[in-house]
Sequence to fold (455 residues):
Amino acid sequence: MHVHILGICGSFMGGIAAIAKSLGHTVTGSDKNVYPPMSTQLTDLGISLTEGYDTKQFEPLPDIVIVGNAMSRGNPAVEYVLNRNIPYTSGPQWLLENLLKDRWVLAIAGTHGKTTTSSMVAWILEATGLEPGFLIGGVPENFGVSARVGASPFFVIEADEYDSAFFDKRSKFVHYRPRTLVLNNLEFDHADIFPDLAAIQRQFHHLMRMVPGNGMAVYPAADENLMAMLEQGCWCEQQSLGNDWQYKLINNDGSAFDVIHQQQTVGTVKWTLIGLHNVNNAMMAIAAAHHAGVQIDDAISALASFKNVKRRMELKGKVANTAVYDDFAHHPTAIQTTLDGLRNNVGKERILAVLEPRSNTMKMGVHKDLLAHSWAAADEVFVYMPDTVDWSMDEVVQHSNNPVHVFNCTDELLKSLMRTQRQVSEPQHILVMSNGGFAGIHGKILTQLGHSNDG
Fold:
């Protein structure tokens, strides 16, 4: 079958493309911007790419078109598909019908930590010989790819609450029908499609309704938003972090901790990751893998060799006394937990935080009242606010207890950052946080520091 994908270069749709190719289909696709690394990954798989949405891409005519959720009415390719009655579907629906309906699905949902926890679960299953399939919205460094079909009944998927397509406004995850469901946390986000928290909770409960009676949901007992959602009804086994599962920190930065199951200490995780958020992610991953049949001590051993995900506290380079990190944090909670983890790891060493509020929710200013508190663990903060953002950072700066510098030009931000970095000779840590490319600022910082980074 010839499968054509509109919006193929996103992490999710690129993963769909890789899976479709592995299943033996002819795969082509297009996107507004076709560039590495996704374009390279796809062409290496033998997938033909078109830049833009010219209707000539439908020659020869595909058997089915998978429409990414970034596509909207008025797009010439979308209008061509509709006008000529070409069969079409959403990515999540195609995945259900062609793969997930026959698998034991382990779905990882929540506002934060989905990518990292999904990667942990996939690695635990892999390290214990279960050869899972997976589709993750990032690149786990243990695997080097974001998606594969796998060779066992188990399939791990990052379960995103964003909508499925222009013609299906349900959350993606309602198509996944998990047997094992991880609910990491629940906060208000995606303000561009959800009017309030209750609307997100409703979608999460739609997902909850699909877990079979012999399935399991694991969640943090302290999350009031999740608990309120679960009170609407749950028909499967429930396990919680705080009751069934607990942990005890050995190192304050989260690099070592005891795992406690049913009030019994069952092992110790010692790994390279830091941050309380990653400890929580790990506990969720252990519980999910255990439901799939993995022994707890084997899961703990697997995490010792877990290498995290690209763009999650990823060390991009170190020059003399200064380390530069890249992190995907783009929500105040994620910003705070990431900075707190780094602070606990480096002690009193200087942290310079560089932030681009790039998500649709952040650009709308929905979480601006939480920002000043979120970066409290940094020594100084540098924020890029382009002219396209229609709210001011002035009030946030006034409520901040640490120095904040705001710029509408990345070059000016970089100059100020480097002037500040040069003021001291002690060890320093520059943490860049954005869910986009941020104009390649990581490489520019390293170049300014006197190091050319190829990574």
User: Anything to note?
Assistant: The mean pLDDT is 91. The domain at 2-91 is CATH 3.40.50.720 (Rossmann fold). The first strand starts at residue 2 and ends at 6. The chain has three domains: 2-91, 99-303, 314-448.
